[in-house]
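Write out a record, fold above all:
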Amino acid sequence: MFNLVSSSHVAHAMQIHVLIPIPPPHAGPDPPDRIFHFTTGSKLRSIINSGHILPSTAHIEPNEKPVAWFSSSRQWEPTATKCPIPGKLGQLITAKAQNGLVRITLPASVAPHTFHDLPTIAGTSPSGFMGLLLAGLDLGADPGAWRFTPTPVPTALIREIEFFDFANDCWLAVDLAELACRN
Protein backbone atom coordinates (compact mmCIF):
# COMPACT_ATOMS: atom_id res chain seq x y z
CA MET A 1 0.00 0.00 0.00
CA PHE A 2 1.29 3.44 -0.85
CA ASN A 3 0.51 6.89 0.51
CA LEU A 4 0.08 9.47 -2.19
CA VAL A 5 1.45 13.01 -2.19
CA SER A 6 -0.03 15.61 -4.48
CA SER A 7 2.27 18.08 -6.20
CA SER A 8 0.90 21.07 -8.13
CA HIS A 9 2.53 22.71 -11.12
CA VAL A 10 1.12 25.75 -12.91
CA ALA A 11 1.47 25.63 -16.68
CA HIS A 12 -0.34 28.18 -18.88
CA ALA A 13 -2.97 28.87 -16.21
CA MET A 14 -3.75 25.17 -15.84
CA GLN A 15 -3.02 23.13 -12.73
CA ILE A 16 -1.51 19.71 -13.12
CA HIS A 17 -1.57 17.29 -10.18
CA VAL A 18 1.03 14.58 -10.06
CA LEU A 19 0.58 11.66 -7.66
CA ILE A 20 3.88 10.36 -6.31
CA PRO A 21 3.76 7.00 -4.57
CA ILE A 22 5.59 6.90 -1.22
CA PRO A 23 6.30 3.43 0.15
CA PRO A 24 5.29 2.76 3.76
CA PRO A 25 8.04 2.94 6.40
CA HIS A 26 10.00 -0.27 6.81
CA ALA A 27 11.53 -0.92 10.23
CA GLY A 28 13.92 -3.65 9.15
CA PRO A 29 14.04 -7.07 7.55
CA ASP A 30 10.80 -8.99 7.11
CA PRO A 31 10.08 -10.88 10.30
CA PRO A 32 10.56 -14.65 10.18
CA ASP A 33 7.55 -16.95 10.60
CA ARG A 34 9.31 -18.98 13.30
CA ILE A 35 12.11 -18.39 15.74
CA PHE A 36 14.27 -20.53 17.95
CA HIS A 37 15.19 -20.48 21.61
CA PHE A 38 18.52 -22.20 22.17
CA THR A 39 19.16 -23.71 25.58
CA THR A 40 20.49 -26.84 27.26
CA GLY A 41 18.93 -30.07 28.49
CA SER A 42 19.34 -28.91 32.09
CA LYS A 43 17.56 -25.62 31.40
CA LEU A 44 14.83 -27.37 29.38
CA ARG A 45 13.62 -29.16 32.52
CA SER A 46 13.17 -25.75 34.23
CA ILE A 47 11.31 -24.39 31.19
CA ILE A 48 8.92 -27.36 31.10
CA ASN A 49 8.35 -27.33 34.88
CA SER A 50 7.70 -23.55 35.02
CA GLY A 51 5.45 -23.61 31.94
CA HIS A 52 7.34 -20.64 30.43
CA ILE A 53 10.51 -19.51 28.76
CA LEU A 54 11.35 -16.80 31.25
CA PRO A 55 13.28 -13.57 30.68
CA SER A 56 16.89 -13.99 31.76
CA THR A 57 18.31 -11.97 34.64
CA ALA A 58 21.90 -13.06 33.91
CA HIS A 59 24.39 -10.23 33.29
CA ILE A 60 21.87 -7.39 33.24
CA GLU A 61 22.43 -3.92 34.62
CA PRO A 62 20.58 -2.75 37.79
CA ASN A 63 17.89 -0.70 35.96
CA GLU A 64 17.59 -2.99 32.94
CA LYS A 65 14.54 -5.19 32.35
CA PRO A 66 15.25 -8.89 31.77
CA VAL A 67 14.34 -10.33 28.35
CA ALA A 68 13.97 -13.80 26.85
CA TRP A 69 16.27 -14.28 23.86
CA PHE A 70 15.54 -15.98 20.54
CA SER A 71 17.13 -16.28 17.11
CA SER A 72 15.74 -16.34 13.59
CA SER A 73 18.64 -18.64 12.61
CA ARG A 74 18.25 -22.42 12.69
CA GLN A 75 21.95 -22.77 13.59
CA TRP A 76 23.07 -23.07 17.21
CA GLU A 77 23.26 -19.60 18.75
CA PRO A 78 26.89 -19.12 19.88
CA THR A 79 25.88 -16.91 22.81
CA ALA A 80 23.89 -19.85 24.26
CA THR A 81 27.14 -21.79 24.74
CA LYS A 82 27.82 -21.93 28.49
CA CYS A 83 31.62 -21.65 28.28
CA PRO A 84 33.85 -19.00 26.69
CA ILE A 85 35.16 -21.38 24.00
CA PRO A 86 33.69 -20.66 20.54
CA GLY A 87 32.71 -23.23 17.95
CA LYS A 88 32.06 -26.97 18.21
CA LEU A 89 34.43 -27.46 21.16
CA GLY A 90 32.43 -24.99 23.26
CA GLN A 91 29.22 -26.67 22.16
CA LEU A 92 30.55 -30.10 23.13
CA ILE A 93 31.69 -28.89 26.55
CA THR A 94 28.31 -27.21 27.11
CA ALA A 95 26.38 -30.30 25.96
CA LYS A 96 28.38 -32.61 28.26
CA ALA A 97 28.02 -30.33 31.30
CA GLN A 98 24.35 -29.39 30.69
CA ASN A 99 22.71 -32.60 29.38
CA GLY A 100 22.69 -31.67 25.70
CA LEU A 101 21.99 -28.74 23.39
CA VAL A 102 18.32 -27.90 22.78
CA ARG A 103 16.55 -25.94 20.07
CA ILE A 104 12.95 -24.88 20.76
CA THR A 105 10.85 -23.72 17.80
CA LEU A 106 8.12 -21.13 18.37
CA PRO A 107 6.02 -18.74 16.29
CA ALA A 108 8.00 -15.57 15.58
CA SER A 109 5.26 -13.44 17.07
CA VAL A 110 6.39 -14.39 20.60
CA ALA A 111 9.54 -12.25 20.24
CA PRO A 112 8.72 -9.21 18.11
CA HIS A 113 11.74 -7.09 19.04
CA THR A 114 15.11 -7.01 17.28
CA PHE A 115 18.43 -6.44 19.01
CA HIS A 116 18.36 -2.75 18.03
CA ASP A 117 15.20 -2.32 20.15
CA LEU A 118 17.00 -3.42 23.34
CA PRO A 119 17.86 0.05 24.71
CA THR A 120 14.30 1.27 24.18
CA ILE A 121 12.42 -1.82 25.44
CA ALA A 122 14.75 -3.12 28.17
CA GLY A 123 16.53 0.09 29.13
CA THR A 124 19.95 -1.27 28.21
CA SER A 125 22.65 1.41 28.41
CA PRO A 126 24.68 2.29 25.31
CA SER A 127 27.77 0.65 26.85
CA GLY A 128 25.77 -2.46 27.78
CA PHE A 129 24.34 -2.62 24.26
CA MET A 130 27.81 -2.37 22.69
CA GLY A 131 29.17 -4.94 25.16
CA LEU A 132 26.50 -7.46 24.13
CA LEU A 133 27.09 -6.73 20.46
CA LEU A 134 30.87 -7.18 20.70
CA ALA A 135 30.61 -10.30 22.90
CA GLY A 136 28.20 -11.86 20.41
CA LEU A 137 30.41 -11.02 17.43
CA ASP A 138 33.48 -12.42 19.25
CA LEU A 139 31.63 -15.74 19.63
CA GLY A 140 30.58 -15.78 15.96
CA ALA A 141 26.94 -14.79 16.51
CA ASP A 142 24.77 -12.83 14.07
CA PRO A 143 23.08 -10.02 16.03
CA GLY A 144 20.81 -9.46 13.03
CA ALA A 145 19.17 -12.80 13.89
CA TRP A 146 18.56 -11.93 17.55
CA ARG A 147 14.98 -11.41 18.73
CA PHE A 148 13.64 -10.88 22.24
CA THR A 149 10.63 -10.28 24.43
CA PRO A 150 10.42 -8.83 27.94
CA THR A 151 7.50 -11.14 28.79
CA PRO A 152 7.45 -14.85 29.70
CA VAL A 153 6.58 -17.12 26.76
CA PRO A 154 4.15 -19.96 27.59
CA THR A 155 5.36 -23.46 26.72
CA ALA A 156 1.94 -24.08 25.13
CA LEU A 157 3.25 -22.07 22.15
CA ILE A 158 6.18 -24.45 21.54
CA ARG A 159 5.98 -26.03 18.09
CA GLU A 160 8.97 -28.38 18.42
CA ILE A 161 11.82 -29.33 20.76
CA GLU A 162 15.01 -30.83 19.35
CA PHE A 163 18.29 -32.08 20.81
CA PHE A 164 21.51 -31.79 18.83
CA ASP A 165 23.01 -35.13 17.76
CA PHE A 166 26.77 -34.60 17.50
CA ALA A 167 27.36 -38.05 15.97
CA ASN A 168 25.16 -37.24 12.97
CA ASP A 169 25.56 -33.42 13.06
CA CYS A 170 21.81 -32.78 13.07
CA TRP A 171 18.89 -31.81 15.26
CA LEU A 172 16.54 -34.63 16.40
CA ALA A 173 12.94 -33.87 17.37
CA VAL A 174 11.66 -34.98 20.75
CA ASP A 175 8.16 -36.36 21.24
CA LEU A 176 6.53 -33.61 23.33
CA ALA A 177 4.03 -36.03 24.93
CA GLU A 178 6.86 -38.33 26.02
CA LEU A 179 8.86 -35.37 27.32
CA ALA A 180 5.86 -34.23 29.39
CA CYS A 181 5.58 -37.70 30.95
CA ARG A 182 9.28 -37.67 31.96
CA ASN A 183 9.01 -34.32 33.74
